[in-house]
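[Meeting: bench + compute handoff]

Bench side (C.D.) handed over the final construct sequence. Compute side (W.E.) agreed to return the predicted structure before the next meeting so the bench team could plan truncations. Sequence as handed over:
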Amino acid sequence: MANETTFHGFFILIFLGVFAISVFFRARARRLGGTIPRAREGKRFAAARLAVAAPLYLPLVVYMIYPPWMEWSSLSLPTWVRWMGVVVGVAMLPGIYWVMVSIGKNVSETYLTKEGHELVQHGPYRWVRHPLYSVATTTIVALGLVAANGYILIVAVLAIIGIASLVVPKEEAELIRKFGVQYQEYQKRTGRFLPRVRNAS
């Protein structure tokens, strides 16, 4: 039977795997496509982004470094649920790699578009407009299950709400501004976070 050390080990594997993939491709995108200063988003939006990111990522780092520091919000989850978190988390690693390869130099740390920004419509972007958010939030939920930690799961849900209500609308408005009708047509045939279910008729 798996013990806490086993689950902690898988947590580290998944977390560092995601981190390594993200850092590699974001550095590559900055080198090939340039960067957009976060200051251009405005102080209010930057503060809102920090208010979401800090409580989301800090507990993940804390649990990875020393799990007892997060025991105050631990949950009593069945072992099979935690293993399900492991399976989903590990499965997200190739998913994140696929997303990052597909978006290439267009990935940005802001909701703004780069000067040479391209409308990506291949890979997972063929069916979903924001697959990076889909795989990232799914991974965080999976990590919350692996850690059996209520706080991580709660902030993951809040992050999903924040991304859907705050970040994505601004990104899509910016993409419409840049690509116009082309992006609006793309919206019609794709889902925001999951593939669109088309009517049989």
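W.E. noted at the follow-up: The CA atoms of residues 68 and 195 lie 39 Å apart. C.D. will use this when planning the next construct.
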